[in-house]
Structure formats: structure tokens, C-alpha cells
């Protein structure tokens, strides 16, 4: 039996550092534009690359994972926003063998996961390129299905996330967004591969938001 | 009926004219009968013919030019006699210092090994010089059928199947053995005893043969009388019946017993209740019970005569069978099965080395069903009954015999009153079970062999399942399919997994719980849908 195997932190840590440092290289000349009144509400969409924290997950669903997300947000002040979002991940994989006797044995699997997210971001240095820090909670619905065996597992699980990144103002209403996020969703009992499944990991995503009113 | 008498007369004349040839004819070329310490593997290659295998030595008939070759090859031998026309050779078992009453008789004898003598004579009336009615075996020294022990391959042994794992076959055998009737055994032994004597060559012995023939026919079996001659002047007959096999009738399991008897006063009184009305009654009881059943192989039921003269009846039958290429899988000879004595109730199962598998299989089939103890004895020098004639022809044969010294043996006092019939019932049950098992009851294919299992667990994130991969050896029969059964406990109730018999020799059992152990057995199914008993059981990861 394998236990939880944390991801190698090297690559994501590099991205995180780049993102955190980006705001400090942004142009001060653009700061004046922050005077323009902002819409209080916004909608957004993001997509990105997900790196699962657990070795078991990566072995089974080994290919690059691309979750997508839709957001609805509110800016109560210039330095803070609150958002709700739904994120969806669907992928396929195949089983792994315990002590291979028949190396050719393989079952196809399908993974579907929808996560409701509620979070808050802080913008300590509002400017045309503004870095932010954020955190929030999540609630995931997931289903793992064996495509050629009468077997499926499904569940729901709460979790949390922390994130950081920056947004770049493209106009009065539009922002581009880059963010990196660490999440943890402890889903409990698993197969022989891991005693306790965690659906979290690192997510690097790019997005676009639009102020609505 | 004068016509019938005339036919019998001509038949007699004809038989007498040919009778001497197979038994007493000297070898075609001048030869010597020599004794060689065994084992002596080179003897046959150098041109000697092994006539008899004994405990510590071989009797070999060697043409004279072969003797220097044996000497040159360093084979240590002693010449016993130079056979010539008209001289009979016998093996004789005697505990006495000298087995002869009179020195002056035209009889020569030599001690070969412990209590076993070679006796040769040209005098047809030599028996009157014997100190007792000893156990005798006439030796055949010549002709194409002279035995070459160790050279004739035995009929192939049916595959041995572990008995424990064949519950259905075991139940079927138990159903058969439950039918053995002590009353019938008693009544048949009494009838045979009431012939007063069954000394071969007497009219009473012939009448006893007729009685057996009639009993076989009453049972509804195809039976016949097979006359033969012995020692130039005498005639008797074997009685043989057959229950034809359903699948391979050319292969036969043979149960036999001699019905003739002898005593210290053989022409007048030889009731031979233990020796061997007991074995003969057993054959009749086997016939009665087995005739109602169906088997894959044929079952032969043979009552032979002139055993007491030197195994002549069985030698006649076995020679003929070999000459005809008969596929006799196994011979079960019953001789004296109703006098256990004071000692433990033991039935010896005597075989030679080639018949050891048969003794094992006899015991495996029969021991679970009977209270008496079955004791395997492997000794090629125990030649004193009809199984020996079959050994000589290379067949697998064994003798079921009480493990005791019957004090009434070869006496006028060997009567029903001295017998232990419950012991005889068990001996018959044991033989019945073994014969039926060898002939394959239920008329089924052989249970498949070589079953192997490997299990594989496949895992996703949240769940896992086990797949079991089975494979086995193909049965030798044609047109066989296979059913696979699974149980959750070893030897527990098994669930059939296959709707139709499989043509291939592998099976994959999917979607199983990794937490559970599974056990598998197989059956073979023939084209008529008849199913074998279970194969050996395997656990799902037995061969991981
Ligand atoms: Zn006898």
C-alpha cells in the first residue's frame, strides 16, 4: 500500500515566485488609470493546468489535466473582491496493477469533478497590473467510473484553497488574470494505491474578467 | 443326446491333440532354464527370455548359444534344467524341507529362494508324490507368448485422480457398495460348496462352471464358456461375461476368481468355501450389481478353472487376451476373501511393480468405503493365484486376499461354517468400488487435470477489483467441453460460472472482490452432455 505522495514542489514554486514578483516590475506610469471608477460586479472565465498533489492520481490520470472555471465576483472596495465560481474537470485514465501477474490487464476509467468555490482576493497595490492574494473554501462533487466494469465511486467533499497572482487591466471593464493556486480536498478512503485520497493540487490558470455594473 | 455327445467327443479329441503345445512344449531350439540373481537388465538383450520374476532372482530360458554370451557379459547364472518335450515345469510354494513324499519318483526339484521351489517332471501323475496339495504355478517356457517380464509395456494406466476431490464419483461408488448382499454371498458360497468338489477335471467342477454361466445369463449378461485343456489329458472351462463399456468398450477392467477347488482328497471332497467359492461368489455379486449400471469401459467378469492345478485357466485366458491384443486396463483377482483369522481385519492387495499404481488406486477408491484395512503388498514372487498369469502377459493385475493363514486351506474342512461373512461383504464392497471406479462410473469423461489459477488486482483511485485467470490441460477424449465452478470457501458449495461448456482450456473470471478468496474446480463435459467429477481445486492466487 502506498501512502500520500506529495508532488515535487520545484516547478510550481518557480511559477509562484514569478507571479508574486511580477507586480513589482509593473509600470508606475499606469497608476493614474486606477482613478477611473470600476464596475462593482464582474464575471470571468479561466482555464489552466492542474497538477494533482497525489502520486496515485497522477499514475491513473497521468495526462495533462485542464480544468475550466466560471466566476461571478463583487468588488466591495478597490482592494478587495469576493467571488463565487464553479470549476469542472473531466479526464480519462486507466487502472494500475497490484503485483502484476497479467501486465496486459487494463480497465478504462473516466473522472469527472465539479467544484463550487467561494473566495476572497486582496489587492494590496492597485495599479494597471495588480498582484493579489486570496483564499477560499470549496465543495466538490466527483465521480470515478470504470468504463468496462460495473464499478463507480462518487462522493462530495469540502476543501480549501489559497491563491496568488495578478491581473492586468485591458480596459475599463476587462482584466486578464494569471493565478496559481494550491488546494486541498481530502476525500478519504481509496483503493490499495493510497489509503486516503486527496483531490487537491496546484493549479496554474489564465483567465479573463469583465465588469458588468 | 448322441449328436451333442459326438460333438463333445470330437472337440475333446481335437483339444487333446493341441493341448500339450502351449503348456509343455519345449523351446523351439535347445535351451537351458537358468536362475539369475535379479536385477539383470542385460538378459533380454543377450537373447534370454525371462520366464518368471521372483523376489530375488529371475528364471530365464536361454537358447544354448546364449549361455556363453551371458558368461561373457559377466552375468552370474546357474543352469537348473534343460527343458525337453513332455517335461512340465512348476513353481511350488512349500514351507517344508522337502515337498516330495518319495525320493524315487521321476520328479526333480530345486529350491530357488525362500520356500519357493522349481519342480519338473514328465510324469503326469506327479501330484500323488507331493507332500501336500501345494500352491502350484505351471511355467510356460516356449512359444511367442512366453512372458518377457519387464518388456511388455502394460496397458496405459488411466490417469490417477485424487479421490478426495471427486465427491460425485465417491457418492456413486457408495451407492453401489451399499447393494452388496451378505445373504447372496452366503447362498452362492453354499451352492458352490454343495458341488462336493470342484476339482478341475471332475464332472462336478464342470457343473459348477455351468452354474456360474447360468447365473451370468440370468443377470442378463452376455456370457460364454471357454474350454481349455491342460497337462495333456484334462479339460475344464473358464466362464466369462462382459458388461460392455459405453465410451471405450475396447478397454476392459477385468474382475476374476477361480471357481475350482482342491483338498487332500480332491476327487471326493473339496468344498473350497474360502478357496475360492468366496471369490467366485464375489464375482457373481459384482455382476449382479454392476450389470445395472453404465460405465465408460467394459467390465469383464471371469471365473477361471484349474487354478489349483497350476493357474491353467487364467494362463489360457491371459495368453489369448495378449494374442488378441486385448486392452485390459486392470485385473482384480479375488482369491480367499472370507477368512480374516484372529488378527486384524486386513485384506492384502498384492501387486508387482508394474501394478503398483493399480494397488494404490484400488485402495484410494475402496478404503473410504470399507472398515477393513486394505494393505498394499508389492512383491513379484507372490505368484500363487491367477493375477500372476496376467503379470506374465504384461497386464496390470492385483490379488485381493485375506491376510491370514486359513487352517482349513486345501482341506475338506474349508466350509461355509468357518467363514466370516461380514468380512467377505466388505472385501466384495472394496473390490466392487475399485472395479467400478476403474471402469468409470457415471459414464463420464475424466475429470480435467492441470488446473492453474493466477489472480490480478486492478486499481483505480477509489476502488479495485480482482480478475482470476484459469488454464488447464485438454482432456485426451475428443469433443470435450469444460465447465468452471467457483466457491467462496475451500470445498464449499460451488457455483457454475459457464452457461455453455467451454471449448478452450482457459477462463477469465472478472469483477471479483479483492478482499475475498475464491476457489475453483472444473468438470469436463462430453458431446452427450455427460459431466465428469470435479478436478482438483485451486485457490485464485495458487499460481501467482
Ligand atoms: Zn485359491
Distance between the termini of chain A: 54 Å
Q: How many β-strands of chain A, per DSSP?
A: 11
Number of helices of chain A: 2
Major sheet of chain A: 8 strands, antiparallel, barrel
- Strand arrangement across the biggest beta sheet of chain B: 9-10-12-11-13-16-14-15
What share of the residues of chain A lie within helices? under 10%
How would you classify the helix and strand content of chain A by structural class?
A: mainly beta
Low-confidence stretches of chain A: 1-13, 18-34
**DSSP helical segment count of chain B:** 11
Overview features:
heterodimer; A: 213 residues; mainly beta; Porin; 8-stranded antiparallel barrel; two-stranded antiparallel ribbon; 2 helices; 11 strands; 8% helix; B: 544 residues; alpha+beta; Aminopeptidase; Immunoglobulin-like; 8-stranded mixed beta sheet; 4-stranded antiparallel beta sheet; 11 helices; 28% strand; globular
Describe the fold and architecture:
The complex is a heterodimer of chains A (213) and B (544). By secondary structure, chain A is mainly beta. Chain A has a domain at 41-95 and 119-211: Porin (Beta Barrel), CATH 2.40.160.20. Helix content of chain A is 8%, strand content 57%. Chain A has helices spanning 10-21, 55-60, and strands spanning 41-52, 68-77, 80-94, 96-98, 108-122, 129-146, 151-169, 174-184, 186-189, 196-198, 201-211. Chain A has an eight-stranded antiparallel barrel with strand order 1-2-3-5-6-7-8-11. In chain A, a hairpin with a 6-residue loop joins strand 5 (108-122) and strand 6 (129-146). The longest helix of chain A is centred in the N-terminal third of the chain and has 12 residues, at 10-21. The termini of chain A are far apart. With 544 residues, chain B is of the alpha+beta class. In chain B, helix 4 (182-193) packs across helix 6 and helix 6 crosses helix 11. Chain B contains eleven helices and 23 strands. In chain B, 26% of the residues lie in helices and 28% in strands. In chain B, the strands form five sheets. An eight-stranded mixed β-sheet of chain B has the order 9-10-12-11-13-16-14-15, sandwiched between helices. In chain B, strands 2-3-1-4 form a four-stranded antiparallel β-sheet, covered by helices on one side. In chain B, a hairpin with a 3-residue loop joins strand 9 and strand 10 (234-243). The interface between A and B is medium-sized, with 31 and 18 residues. Bound molecules: zinc ion. Zinc ion is lined by residues 258, 275-276, 307, 335-336, 385 of chain B.
Amino acid at each position: 500500500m502506498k501512502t500520500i505522495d506529495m508532488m515535487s514542489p520545484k516547478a510550481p514554486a518557480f511559477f509562484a515566485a514569478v507571479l508574486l514578483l511580477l507586480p513589482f516590475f509593473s509600470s508606475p506610469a499606469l497608476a493614474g488609470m486606477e482613478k477611473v471608477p470600476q464596475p462593482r460586479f464582474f464575471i470571468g472565465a479561466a482555464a489552466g493546468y492542474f497538477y494533482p498533489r497525489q502520486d496515485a492520481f497522477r499514475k491513473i490520470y497521468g495526462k495533462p489535466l485542464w480544468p475550466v472555471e466560471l466566476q461571478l465576483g463583487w468588488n466591495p472596495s478597490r482592494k478587495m473582491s469576493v467571488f463565487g465560481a464553479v470549476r469542472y474537470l473531466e479526464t480519462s485514465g486507466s487502472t494500475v496493477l497490484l503485483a502484476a501477474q497479467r501486465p496486459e490487464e487494463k480497465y478504462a476509467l473516466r473522472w469527472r469533478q465539479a467544484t463550487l468555490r467561494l473566495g476572497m482576493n486582496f489587492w494590496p497595490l492597485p495599479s494597471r497590473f495588480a498582484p493579489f492574494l486570496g483564499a477560499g473554501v470549496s465543495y466538490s462533487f466527483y465521480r470515478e467510473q470504470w468504463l468496462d466494469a460495473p464499478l463507480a465511486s462518487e462522493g462530495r467533499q469540502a476543501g480549501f484553497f489559497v491563491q496568488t497572482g495578478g491581473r492586468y487591466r485591458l480596459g475599463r471593464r476587462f482584466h486578464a488574470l494569471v493565478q496559481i493556486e494550491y488546494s486541498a480536498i481530502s476525500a478519504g478512503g481509496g483503493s490499495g494505491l493510497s489509503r486516503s485520497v486527496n483531490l487537491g493540487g496546484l493549479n496554474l490558470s489564465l483567465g479573463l474578467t469583465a465588469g458588468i455594473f | 443326446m448322441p449328436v451333442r455327445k459326438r460333438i463333445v467327443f470330437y472337440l475333446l479329441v481335437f483339444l487333446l491333440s493341441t493341448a500339450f503345445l502351449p503348456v509343455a512344449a519345449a523351446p523351439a531350439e535347445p535351451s537351458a532354464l537358468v536362475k539369475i540373481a535379479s536385477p539383470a537388465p542385460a538378459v533380454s538383450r543377450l537373447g534370454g527370455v525371462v520366464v518368471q520374476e521372483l523376489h530375488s532372482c529371475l528364471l530365464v530360458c536361454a537358447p544354448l548359444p546364449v549361455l556363453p554370451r551371458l558368461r561373457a557379459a559377466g552375468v552370474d547364472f546357474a543352469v537348473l534344467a534343460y527343458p525337453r518335450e513332455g517335461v512340465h515345469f512348476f513353481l511350488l510354494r512349500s514351507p517344508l524341507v522337502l515337498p516330495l513324499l518319495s525320493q524315487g519318483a521321476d520328479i526333480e526339484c530345486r529350491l530357488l529362494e525362500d520356500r519357493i521351489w522349481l519342480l519338473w517332471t514328465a510324469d503326469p501323475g506327479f501330484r500323488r508324490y507331493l507332500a501336500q496339495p501345494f500352491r502350484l504355478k505351471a511355467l510356460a517356457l516356449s512359444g511367442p507368448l512366453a512372458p518377457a517380464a519387464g518388456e511388455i509395456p502394460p496397458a496405459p494406466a488411466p490417469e490417477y485422480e485424487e479421490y478426495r476431490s471427486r465427491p460425485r464419483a465417491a457418492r456413486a461408488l457408495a451407492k453401489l457398495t451399499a447393494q452388496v448382499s451378505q445373504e447372496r454371498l452366503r447362498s452362492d458360497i453354499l451352492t458352490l460348496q454343495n458341488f462336493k468338489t470342484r476339482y478341475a477335471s471332475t464332472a462336478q467342477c464342470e457343473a459348477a462352471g455351468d452354474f456360474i454361466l447360468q447365473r451370468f445369463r440370468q443377470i442378463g449378461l452376455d456370457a460364454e464358456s471357454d474350454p481349455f485343456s491342460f497337462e495333456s489329458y484334462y479339460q475344464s472351462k473358464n466362464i466369462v461375461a462382459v458388461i460392455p463399456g459405453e465410451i471405450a468398450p475396447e478397454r476392459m477392467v477385468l474382475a476374476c476368481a477361480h471357481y475350482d477347488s482342491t483338498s487332500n482328497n480332491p476327487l471326493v471332497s473339496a468344498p473350497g468355501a474360502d478357496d475360492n467359492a468366496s471369490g467366485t461368489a464375489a464375482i457373481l455379486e459384482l455382476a449382479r450389481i454392476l450389470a445395472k449400471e453404465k460405465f465408460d469401459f467394459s467390465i469383464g467378469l471371469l471365473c477361471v478353472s484349474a487354478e489349483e492345478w497350476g493357474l491353467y485357466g487364467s494362463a489360457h485366458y491371459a495368453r489369448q487376451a495378449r494374442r488378441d491384443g486385448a486392452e485390459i486396463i486392470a485385473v482384480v483377482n479375488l482369491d480367499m476373501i472370507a477368512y480374516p483369522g484372529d488378527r486384524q481385519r486386513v485384506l492384502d492387495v498384492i501387486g508387482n511393480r508394474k501394478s503398483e499404481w493399480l494397488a494404490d488406486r484400488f485402495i484410494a477408491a475402496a478404503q473410504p468405503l470399507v472398515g477393513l484395512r486394505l494393505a498394499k503388498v508389492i512383491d513379484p514372487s507372490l505368484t500363487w493365484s491367477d493375477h500372476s498369469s496376467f503379470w506374465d502377459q504384461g497386464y496390470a493385475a492385483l490379488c485381493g486376499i485375506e491376510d491370514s493363514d486359513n487352517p482349513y486351506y486345501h482341506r475338506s474342512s474349508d466350509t461355509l461354517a468357518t467363514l466370516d461373512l461380514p468380512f467377505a461383504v466388505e472385501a466384495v464392497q472394496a473390490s466392487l468400488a475399485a472395479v467400478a471406479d476403474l471402469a468409470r462410473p457415471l459414464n463420464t469423461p475424466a475429470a480435467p487435470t492441470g488446473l492453474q489459477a493466477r489472480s490480478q488486482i486492478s486499481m483505480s483511485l477509489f476502488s479495485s477489483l480482482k480478475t482470476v485467470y484459469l488454464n488447464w490441460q485438454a482432456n485426451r477424449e475428443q469433443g470435450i467441453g469444460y465447465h468452471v465452478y467457483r466457491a467462496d470457501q475451500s470445498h464449499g458449495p460451488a457455483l457454475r460460472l459457464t452457461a455453455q461448456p467451454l471449448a478452450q482450456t482457459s477462463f477469465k473470471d472478472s469483477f471479483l472482490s479483492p478482499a475475498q478468496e475464491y476457489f475453483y474446480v472444473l468438470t469436463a463435459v462430453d458431446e452427450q452432455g455427460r459431466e465428469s467429477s470435479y478436478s482438483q481445486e485451486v485457490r485464485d492466487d495458487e499460481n501467482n
